[in-house]
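Build the 3D complex.
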Amino acid sequence: MQKSIFPFKPKYLNRTSCLVSLIKRFSDDTRLTASRASATTYRGPCVVGGWIKAARHQRKFSFINIIDGLSKRDLQIVAPASLISDVSGLRVGASIKVEGMLVDSPAKGQCVELQADKIDLLGQNDDTYPFVSNTHAYSPDYIRQYLHLRSKKPEFSAMLRLRSKCRQLIHKYFAENDFVQIDTPILTTNDCEGAGETFSVGSLMQNRTKQSFFGETGVNLTVSGQLHLEASNSGIAKVYTFGPAFRADNAVDTTHLAEFYMIEGEIAFINGLEDLLECVEDLTKYVAKSITENEQEDIEALSSGSTGCEQHDITRCINNKFHRITYTEAIKLLESASEDFSFKPKYGEDIRREHEKYILKVHDSVPVFITDWPKKLKPFYMYVNEDGETVSCMDLIVPGPGELVGGSVRENRHGVLKKSLEDADMLESCQWYLDIRQYGSVPHAGFGMGFERFLQFLFGIKQIRDTLPFPRYANNCRL
Amino acid sequence: MQKSIFPFKPKYLNRTSCLVSLIKRFSDDTRLTASRASATTYRGPCVVGGWIKAARHQRKFSFINIIDGLSKRDLQIVAPASLISDVSGLRVGASIKVEGMLVDSPAKGQCVELQADKIDLLGQNDDTYPFVSNTHAYSPDYIRQYLHLRSKKPEFSAMLRLRSKCRQLIHKYFAENDFVQIDTPILTTNDCEGAGETFSVGSLMQNRTKQSFFGETGVNLTVSGQLHLEASNSGIAKVYTFGPAFRADNAVDTTHLAEFYMIEGEIAFINGLEDLLECVEDLTKYVAKSITENEQEDIEALSSGSTGCEQHDITRCINNKFHRITYTEAIKLLESASEDFSFKPKYGEDIRREHEKYILKVHDSVPVFITDWPKKLKPFYMYVNEDGETVSCMDLIVPGPGELVGGSVRENRHGVLKKSLEDADMLESCQWYLDIRQYGSVPHAGFGMGFERFLQFLFGIKQIRDTLPFPRYANNCRL
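Done.
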């Protein structure tokens, strides 16, 4: 195995020995970033790089705290005044490289500090820096103006780390349960939901030559990977996809994006809707439990630094079984409520945001599956129940963003699906989808979870635009 | 922790006890798929679902092999003739549910078999099934005609599993090395490469209302996440992205797709190009080593069933240090070659496919980094070397697909970058990118690796369209 160098930690060395070996090989280089240095048990000479989070210059010493965005932790540099000829460059946000001695810290709240022998200013910062104060709580709206610099804000880099960790946990859950990840296509001539909220795609070349790149019209950005995932599911019993989806939805609110990520799973040989509910509940709790147990430091960094979070009691969702009610029961519950709803609940109509909030309230803020909706409110691919009126499906509603997951048993009966496709005037474009039912069709079910809403739910993030680095929504595609 | 049911394996139970508990709870359900049953050490009553891979009907017994696509393994069902009233439905590709007794198998080549008590035909298959023979080696071109059924072919489901495993390994590598995954946007107004091969995006609504959804023109599909990744890298020292990228490239060959996946990494506080090379070499070998050591079964399934693979000696790439030559050295090498090239190699010109092949040949088919290319052949963002003529960059060429990775030290000097942007007439659109250099700029470098080409390299897959489920290329956007 080839030996790797920092910043690539060889797998067979622990942090300490890795550091030692690096120091030996690269004593004159920037071989550590702040997080690594602050976490190691090594004590001795080293070279560390980072961005200045805070600096205090006293008569005899300067105290400089640097960060690297890889964790919440900062590293304190202690530098004799004689080392620094001009302190004016050492301001918040500037980047430095420090050579010195890593020692146990006598100060409270940190176990290590770096006694500097040499400090190089790598990159200056100037007065136009939008996050010049390290104590002021900038509003999320203000921070969002500087998309290209947002990761410099500790609360936002904490969010990006949490997002990355949640991604890992989701993949881990599926891997542990034998799922195969499938990359469903982004460009497609199918529109799964048929809602007309799709983005169309052309090529710049096409604009000049008037020739379609794909040789056909109607190429769109995917709104959901489901149909394609079902195709893969016809030969692989458990599949999932975790990729971007797009909807040209004009809703300008706290829970919609034009570009967002979806976690979609499809499971063959399933025994009915309850199997699907248990899968979704299991996945949700798996991620919620692991992230709250292991990433408390970043969760605090996210919520303490920002005014954009409103934490709810996530343990309530982890420790209680999610509720299950049918759509019919939900409507009855809403009809009997004394609340003054803007939209009167009615059988056959959609369940609104205000209704969801009420349903969650009477269920002690524990997530609720609403199952078996009227067929006419749902897309063509859902399994028609014996009553002929409802379909075997669910929406999962949760505190915070409301609707988090949608799913259903899929119609696997060739004749019934054919009829539904005809009714929806989609038989021609979805012939391939119907075909799957002709060759070894199996009972199967699947779901789609909005990843950004999941993050809102987990961390109480109020505005969905603050759950990803470069949000896209109506009238906004900056950078 | 809530108890999950099959097909979701509770984390605290091993396969055997899980199976036992499931049998107890769901004795009348389809609770196992073929792979799980064939891998378990449990012996006893169970219910298994799967697709028929082969069936032999003898006078006293039927022998039916079923698969589930979750592994190469099949499970043999032994059924007394009395159990099956009509064998005609039990054909290749049909799906069945079997109740019976899992026992040690007396037959060679399998450790377990299922003695059936009851067989339910879940989904029939018919004569129009395109993969009706389980012995005929269908050509990749033939199989690719049936995109929606491809996962039913064992060699293609093996490819999908390997793709999924490689994805996991890549994420694992980055996680072990403290990288944070960033979702760079798919929709963007930036065109990183400036090659004009971008897809443009509108909305169907826009076609009707003539109002742009994003309130601006020039929204494209990303060609690379690099610029945005660098923005995130300005506050988080190690970041990567692994997502789709799009190029309206008319090349109809074995190594180009219009929609493909890129693994891109950016590393701050880096010490120079060699650090980047070591990272790329380390990542490549990490995945190659792990996948060849652990997934030999699927690699065999992929290459044995198909005529679409041409395996090269991957261990040669794992066990040798990748070569490093400069562009200048590469040109000299090519000029001195006795080969009869279609394109005469010349300093200042690109290195062609035929040239790459020659360079690999004289380097014993071990991957070669070609570094320090002339500035005019490369994009604006690369670090200009001291000579003022070349940039600090690399292409990694490998056996099979040729160019696998491109990367460079990024220009972090504000003044130099500003000049390059002005020369490329991109200053206005990339002002934000230049801005990053104004606030704590650091030496940093990054790379982009084409995931599908990586799979071609790892498994010798000749046609890139066979490395992903739904390929998109010029004149093709089926399904």
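The first strand of chain A starts at residue 32 and ends at 33.
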